[in-house]
Amino acid sequence: APVLGQEIFGPVALILPFDGEEEAVRIANDTPYGLSGAVHTGDVERGVRVAKRIHTGMIHINDGTVHDEPIVPFGGEKHSGVGRLNGDAMVDSFTTQKWISIQHGRSRFPF
Predict the structure, then answer these.
(1) pTM of the model as a whole
(2) β partners of residue 78
(3) Is-contact 54 37, C-beta < 8 A?
């Protein structure tokens, strides 16, 4: 389906049948995008195994695909992002470090 190759920001529910975990992961990864995703399952451990194989910046087990918390890095993979926002990632992205020192008086160096 052509919609599988799009990055859709809207209320769209696409239901696509698949045969097994391998095909589900292949379908999920067969896109140039990878912002966020979700795995819905009755077996949480299996959901985590599958989630680790899907190439997204964020993935949620048994929940919606979008969460934005100020302390959690938000961003995607592939064509869905160029970094992460929020938390320490936000600070690192928008700041640089600089060392400034002040010597009061005359410096003394050992001979």
Answers:
(1) 0.69
(2) 33
(3) yes
